[in-house]
């Protein structure tokens, strides 16, 4: 969606401020990630379909052999919606810089850094999560943390020199 947002911003000339974006994104207090995604995915699929229909034949760059052997440097090879690595600004997660994420994402009580669950929610949904959404995801992960006994047995039975 980063490319989609960039293109639509350039085409329409509108851009929401981070504060406005957060307000709009946090209107939903649904803490069930599956429910949130069930509603969001079809909408995003339609946006991408319309974007591809309008811009599908647009050329975005040229590639030379040195670029291919150089680890894809400078090649727009894939549209990613979760993060962008800008050579000047650094990494942005769903449009937010690391310092912005540190300010916006929920933190553990008494903590100063964002919870991994908050960043995960942001990456998966594109929304800055509320504290209740991050806590619900933490609870879900804790409930799924135990490995079934047959998996533990299998792991324990692997040879010690297995790489």
UniProtKB/TrEMBL annotation:
<dbReference type="InterPro" id="IPR036969">
    <property type="entry name" value="Citrate_synthase_sf"/>
</dbReference>
<dbReference type="GO" id="GO:0005975">
    <property type="term" value="P:carbohydrate metabolic process"/>
</dbReference>
<dbReference type="GO" id="GO:0046912">
    <property type="term" value="F:acyltransferase activity, acyl groups converted into alkyl on transfer"/>
</dbReference>
<dbReference type="InterPro" id="IPR002020">
    <property type="entry name" value="Citrate_synthase"/>
</dbReference>
<protein>
    <submittedName>
        <fullName>Citrate synthase-like protein</fullName>
    </submittedName>
</protein>
<dbReference type="InterPro" id="IPR016142">
    <property type="entry name" value="Citrate_synth-like_lrg_a-sub"/>
</dbReference>
<dbReference type="GO" id="GO:0005759">
    <property type="term" value="C:mitochondrial matrix"/>
</dbReference>
<dbReference type="Pfam" id="PF00285">
    <property type="entry name" value="Citrate_synt"/>
</dbReference>
<dbReference type="GO" id="GO:0006099">
    <property type="term" value="P:tricarboxylic acid cycle"/>
</dbReference>
